[in-house]
Amino acid sequence: MDTSEAPYVEAAHRAALLVESDMRLGLGTGRAATAFIEAVAGRYARGELTGLRCVPSSRRTEALARELGLPLAPWTEGLALDLTVDGADEVDPQNRVLKGAGGALLLEKVIAAASRRWVLVIDASKQVERLGTHFPLPVEVVREAAAYVRAELDSLGRAEIRKQDAGADFVTDTGHLLLDLRIGPMDAPEAVAHRLGQVAGVVEHGLFLGAKPEVLVGA
User: Fold this and answer.
1) Cα-flanking dihedrals φ and ψ of residue 204, to 5°?
2) Which residues lie closer than 8 Å to 110 by C-beta, 6 or more apart?
3) Among 24, 147, 193, 199, which residue carries the largest CB count within 10 Å?
4) Is 152 helix (H, G, I), strand (E, B) or coil?
5) Which of these is catalytic: 10, 62, 90, 108?
6) Is 178 exposed, middle or buried (0-12, 13-18, 19+ CB in 10 A)?
């Protein structure tokens, strides 16, 4: 891929240089994460890295890592990760993050929380003054509660069940539905997160607040 067409690839290659032998490594989901995984796999294949144990955040990331020959660690081993690298949909000046366009936000949030170091790979288009400027806020919900949660979120914005290309409901790897909450630019994302946490049936949401990621912006 031409890095002039996809600046996040350049940032992903920089992130790959942060990986050291014997690390427990969290792997995000999405285009930026894919570029990072490919770069790490290249280093691993060349013998520059040994002893890696990788924890994927989605089935498609797991499949890619297997295809590229990266060694995987089962979730049952526990999560004490040295480094996780992922992408993001939006990042504001306080390094608050909106994620979930790829549908893997729950496990992405788990491995980010379990990581000593969390690095995000983005291009400049993902930098915004306020979260919600370009992307809806994903909200992962228990299937049976979807109608109730949609009604509860009416005061925040318009919530729609995410669909696959064929028109069926999008189902996450953990078996839940995703609501895309079109809320617009948020003045107080912490207040939004608090409100979502009060709604029964909400499993997780795409606001990553207080995690203090390191952000690499593609040149």
Assistant:
1) -165, 165
2) 57, 79
3) 24
4) helix
5) 108
6) buried
Nearest to 10 by CA among 125, 109, 121, 108: 121
- Which residue type does 150 have? R
Tokens of 9: 């690839």
User: Is 75 strand, coil or helix?
Assistant: helix
Phi, psi of 152 (to 5 degrees): -65, -25
Q: Which of 5, 117, 104, 11 is nearest to 58 (CA)?
A: 104
Please compute, for residue 22, the number of CA atoms within 13 A of its CA located in the half-sphere on the CB side: 0
| Cα four-point dihedral sign 106, 32, 61, 167 | positive
Residues sharing a CB contact under 8 Å with residue 175, sequence separation 6 or more, in sequence order: 143
Half-sphere exposure of 73 (CA within 13 A, CB side): 19
The pLDDT mean for the chain works out to 95
Which residues make Cβ contacts (< 8 Å) with residue 125, sequence separation at least 6?
A: none
* Contacts for 135 with CB less than 8 Å, ≥ 6 apart: 89, 90, 98, 101
Q: Is the pLDDT of residue 1 over 50?
A: no
Strand bridging mode 90-91 / 118-122: unpaired
Residue 108 appears among annotated catalytic residues: yes
Nearest-angstrom CA–CA distance, 43 and 150: 45
- Cβ proximity of 114 and 80 under 8 Å: yes
Structure confidence by residue, pLDDT tens digits, 94-135: 999 999 999 999 999 999 999 999 999 999 999 999 999 999
pTM passes above 0.90: yes
